[in-house]
Amino acid sequence: AQRNAAVGFAVKYGPGTMQPLIASFQRYASPCDDLVLFVDDMNPNVAFDKTKGNVILLKRQDWVRKIKRSIGGAAANQRVGAISAWIEENWRRYKYMLHIDTRDLLFFANPFAAFYKNKVDGLVSVAEATAYKNNKHNWLWVDLFYGTPVPAIPGPLVKMITTFTLHGRPIPVICSGLYGGTSLALLDYFGAFSRGIETANPRAKQEL
């Protein structure tokens, strides 16, 4: 059977945060599903059901050492770089991958079942309730990363993005913590994400 992996950055979280996530994953996972968590504490005092889906803990610093200095620093930057490095080394082992938040997420079904049912062959993301054109908070991040050293709100890039439509509707804000699809799609996505952080404005990296 083909393997699948849910991947999350769970650094600085204790048993009270990790146990519900792990228990919910193991309740619905198949033996071919892995939950891969980047942690600081390799013995977080959480219980694992050895008969259910596999839980793999990875030491954060082992993977931070693999990323470029231009990505390092803030934990949010490390998340992208470390997960990107892991995917680069492991994507061939998996059919589907799912990037997850870890602080506030629980599973209520096998997350990969829908991928197989719908024969997903790319990247799946989750839309927020608000459209990008109506969310100035996200304008700031775009200008910080790709605009001028002193962002103008809205800058030229923001003005361009807010005119885009998807199926005739304004582009929605995409959830930054939950997306998945084929392992190759996640490899491409995180590769582009990492390269974006490498070339971002220095101020953006400090803010992030």
3D structure, described in words:
This protein has helices at 15-28, 60-64, 75-90, 113-117, 136-146, 156-161, 183-198, 202-207, and strands at residues 3-9, 33-39, 54-59, 94-100, 123-131, 165-166, 169-170, 172-182. The protein is globular, with a radius of gyration of 18 Å. With 208 residues, it is of the alpha/beta class. Helix 3 packs antiparallel against helix 7 (183-198). The strands form two sheets. Strands 3-2-1-4-8-5 form a six-stranded mixed beta sheet, sandwiched between helices. It has a two-stranded antiparallel ribbon with strand order 6-7. Strand 6 (165-166) and strand 7 (169-170) form a beta hairpin. 38% of the residues lie in helices and 25% in strands. The N and C termini lie far apart (39 Å).
Summarize the biggest pleated sheet. 6 strands, mixed
Could you say which overall geometry the principal axes of the C-alpha atoms support?
Answer: globular
Strand order of the largest sheet: 3-2-1-4-8-5
Mean pLDDT, nearest integer?
82
SS element count, helices:
8
Secondary-structure element order, N to C? EHEEHHEHEHHEEEHH
* Percent of residues in beta strands: 15-25%
Distance between the termini: 39 Å
